[in-house]
Every structure is written in C-alpha cells, then in structure tokens.
C-alpha cells in the first residue's frame, strides 16, 4: 500500500511519539550504538531491529505509506512497551486504514434514556457522544458541573468546556489531570475517523485557544474512559470527592453513560444530597389549585 491514508499517517505519528519516549536502556539496548545521539528516544533502525523487520519497512510504516501486518503490530506493541489502550488504538488505526469512515449525523439520545437520567435523582448522570459532546444530563449533573440547558449545543462539549470555561479550572482540584485525560480520550476516539470535520474543527479551535491543549494533542497519548475518582471544589457546597463510572450504551456504541457517586455516610454524599434538594425540578401544579 502506497496511499498515505489518514489512519496510516496517524499510526505512523503515534509510533514515532512512543519511540521518542523510550531510551535504548529501556528496551535492553545498552551499548547498542556508540555513535552520538542527535535526538532523544529510540531511532527508527533500533525499533526495526527490535521488531525484526527491515529498516525500510519500518520507515514506510512510520511515514504512513504501509499498513503493518498483525504479527508486526504485535511485535511493535512489545517493543514499544504499549499498554492495552495504546494497543487498541494502533490496531483500530491499522484495521480502519482501508475502510470508508461512516458519515455521522447529529446525535440524540432516545427518550427512554433521558427518562432514566431524570429518574436518577440522587446520582449526577451524563451521556457523552463520540467526541465528549454532552448529549443528555439530569438536574443533579447540571447542579454539579454546569447549567448545560443554558448553553448552545456547540458549547456543550466537555473538552471545550474544560479548556475554555474558567469555572472548570476552579471546579476540579486536579484540573491538569482532568484536561490531559480529556485530550487522551479525544485522541483515542479519533481513531475511528482522524479527518472527521467535527473533530478537525474542535482540535483546531482548541489548539489556537490553548497552548497546553496543542502540546498535549501533539503528544498523541491515548486513554479509555472507564472509571476513577475526582475531587471537585463546588462554589456552593465546597469540596466533594466523587467516583465516576462509564457504561457503553448498547443502542449506540458512540454514546457513553457516565454516573457520579459518593459512599453513603460521607461528607461528599451529604453534599450531593444538598445539591439534589436545591436542584430538584418543581413539579407542575394541578391547574385546579389555581381556580377560585
């Protein structure tokens, strides 16, 4: 294959970034070469030797001119010390290099899913789309993070909010950790279609708006969105430490349900209950009550 498909270009760039993070000592090549090193990280020929392929073959992979075979991918995973998320990323890129990306329309959630969110009165809940756009939420999620209902659909993107909304920088105790994870998740999701106009526009906008985003995107780190915990500094109830868990929606693989929770009896749980009492929707009154 000689066509420089976008998936293969991204695969090559990702492999280059990962070899740049390793030293010969990391992979057992101490004394492999006595010549001065002009760049940090492993050289292309060193990776090729570790994988047992020709230097030209590996060069063409890194230049996006060749899709590696499955055995070569397996060897690259081992040689570059890739974790499970990174392995999934390069496998998806290699498999998709010959597929036509599916067209994406405006995403919405099923009414039944929104009803489920609304019934989770003690649990903040969100539904994310492929690029962390916020497709649906419940009242407690809005009280905890931001009033999504007052935003335009374009503004309701979690990555955009993290980097452009000053309130998000003060909300999270470890803003940098949250921001780096957002970029890594976005990069992971981009494997499906690196040239998606929606993705390209978002990355371009944030690269101009924020130098850190630009640096972290160029680093090509990837991560899955699974579970974890975060400490928040809420402007009304103070500090909360919450667990978050992600669930895939079987009706649409691009949609992820995210739930936030706190252990019962903890201060954070009590503060969630306070937010719940403040944010609970007021039920419509019976019209008969207004008659004289």
TrEMBL record:
UniProt cross-references to SUPFAM superfamilies, sorted A to Z: lambda repressor-like DNA-binding domains
Protein name per its UniProtKB record: Helix-turn-helix protein
A Pfam family annotated for this chain is: HTH_31
Organism superkingdom: Bacteria
Give one GO term, molecular function aspect: DNA binding
Q: Which residues form the HTH cro/C1-type domain?
A: 41-87
């Amino acid at each position: 294959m000689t066509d420089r498909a976008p998936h293969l270009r991204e695969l090559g760039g990702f492999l280059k970034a990962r070899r740049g993070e390793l030293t010969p000592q990391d992979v057992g090549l101490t004394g492999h070469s006595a010549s001065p090193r002009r760049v940090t990280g492993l050289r292309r020929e060193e990776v090729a030797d570790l994988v047992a392929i020709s230097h030209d073959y590996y060069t063409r992979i890194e230049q996006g001119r060749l899709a590696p075979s499955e055995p070569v991918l397996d060897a690259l995973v081992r040689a570059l010390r890739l974790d499970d998320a990174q392995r999934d990323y390069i496998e998806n890129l290699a498999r998709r290099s010959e597929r036509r990306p599916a067209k994406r329309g405006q995403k919405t959630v099923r009414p039944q899913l929104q009803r489920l969110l609304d019934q989770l009165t003690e649990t903040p809940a969100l539904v994310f789309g492929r690029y962390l756009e916020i497709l649906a939420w419940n009242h407690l999620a809005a009280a905890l993070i931001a009033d999504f209902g007052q935003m335009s659909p374009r503004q309701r993107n979690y990555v955009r909010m993290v980097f452009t909304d000053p309130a998000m920088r003060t909300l999270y105790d470890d803003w940098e950790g949250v921001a780096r994870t957002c970029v890594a998740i976005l990069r992971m999701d981009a494997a499906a279609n690196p040239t998606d106009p929606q993705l390209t526009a978002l990355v371009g906008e944030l690269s101009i708006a924020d130098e850190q985003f630009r640096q972290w995107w160029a680093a090509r780190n990837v991560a899955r969105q699974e579970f974890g915990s975060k400490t928040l500094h809420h402007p009304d109830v103070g500090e909360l430490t919450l667990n978050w868990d992600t669930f895939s929606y079987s009706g649409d693989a691009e949609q992820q349900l995210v739930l936030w929770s706190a252990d019962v009896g903890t201060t954070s749980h009590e503060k969630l209950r306070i937010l719940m009492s403040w944010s609970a929707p007021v039920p419509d009154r019976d019209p008969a009550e207004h008659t004289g």
